[in-house]
Task: inverse folding
């Protein structure tokens, strides 16, 4: 750039068959996670694939750029302007989320589905794209928006009990040049920003890939098994996992979406290590240990023959002292334990 307060760089050279003449701007100087991630994400899109990054606060330079993030005082997606610092800005992601967006959140809101569709190698209108679009925002993006906008995680005036500088926003912030660094040139600053982009971007893609490869298949399994619950027991309060997978969050979300009443009390699954079966009481909430209906108190702490005698069910192995989980040698035995527990 022609001014002393601006600099540009191309973080990754564009392949010869996909050259982009586009230029994406953000501010120079100290950087945060939101613009580092926003720049990374926008360069994954067809429109701005591997675009050149221009770091400046010069308004005349900003006007010449194809897209501008986190600087300029304008939010206008029709012109690809994605700042969030201006007075009156209150844009949120929607879909039930109320956290004010950062520049990363704005880029994700407008380009996230395209990025996810590319990762899944499906059309943008595929229903899985929308599911991941919401899940990645909830699990990854919203915290970045909230931290950048200074929104407390908890509704309390009390100071936090401990300091957490291990989150992504803190780790990105540490890439900024230290005040003791003798070389404070724009070149060194751009190198630091490149590292920040790489870190934020790699963790974003890791999140998208986890949800695509693990979370989404697990949700399909949980949905299928929950839908078949009345075949297991007429009450609809017992579910059997055909394949064990991370299930807790999916179960709570699907109960809400499907308006299940009564809610599920027990889940059954095979323990791959012992080849026996487990009956687990569903917690009152995903982050709580307390069970909706713990296994009966008279069973707790008993094992093997003593437990089988107490329950009247052969093949019993154990019931935990808290009643949140028990075991049986067979599927039939575990199911009998769950059915009996419902009635006690």
Result:
């Amino acid at each position: 750039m022609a001014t002393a307060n601006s600099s540009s760089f191309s973080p990754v050279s564009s392949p010869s068959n996909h050259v982009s003449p586009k230029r994406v701007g953000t501010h120079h100087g100290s950087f945060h996670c939101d613009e580092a991630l926003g720049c990374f994400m926008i360069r994954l899109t067809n429109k701005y694939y591997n675009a050149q990054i221009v770091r400046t606060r010069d308004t005349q330079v900003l006007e010449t750029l194809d897209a501008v993030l986190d600087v300029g005082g304008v939010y206008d997606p029709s012109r690809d302007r994605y700042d969030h610092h201006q007075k009156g800005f209150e844009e949120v992601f929607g879909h039930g989320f109320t956290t004010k967006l950062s520049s990363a959140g704005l880029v994700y809101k407008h380009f996230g589905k395209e990025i996810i569709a590319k990762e899944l190698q499906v059309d943008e209108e595929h229903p899985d794209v929308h599911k991941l679009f919401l899940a990645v925002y909830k699990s990854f993006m919203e915290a970045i928006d909230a931290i950048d906008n200074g929104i407390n995680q908890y509704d309390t005036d009390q100071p936090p009990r401990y300091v957490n500088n291990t989150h992504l926003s803190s780790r990105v912030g540490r890439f900024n040049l230290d005040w003791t660094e003798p070389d404070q040139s724009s070149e060194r600053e751009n190198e630091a920003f490149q590292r920040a982009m790489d870190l934020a971007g790699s963790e974003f893609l890791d999140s998208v890939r986890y949800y695509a490869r693990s979370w989404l298949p697990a949700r399909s399994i949980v949905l299928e098994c929950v839908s078949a619950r009345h075949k297991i027991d007429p009450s609809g309060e017992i579910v059997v996992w055909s394949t064990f997978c991370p299930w807790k969050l999916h179960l709570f979300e699907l109960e809400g979406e499907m308006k299940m009443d009564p809610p599920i009390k027990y889940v059954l699954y095979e323990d791959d290590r012992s080849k026996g079966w487990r009956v687990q009481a569903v917690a009152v909430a995903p982050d709580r240990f307390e069970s909706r209906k713990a296994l009966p108190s008279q069973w707790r702490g008993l094992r093997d023959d003593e437990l089988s005698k107490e329950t009247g069910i052969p093949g019993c192995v154990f019931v935990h002292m808290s009643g949140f989980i028990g075991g049986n040698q067979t599927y039939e035995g575990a199911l009998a334990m769950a059915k009996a527990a419902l009635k006690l």
User: Anything to note?
Assistant: The radius of gyration is 26 Å. Residues 12-16 have pLDDT under 50 and may be disordered. The longest helix spans residues 186-227.
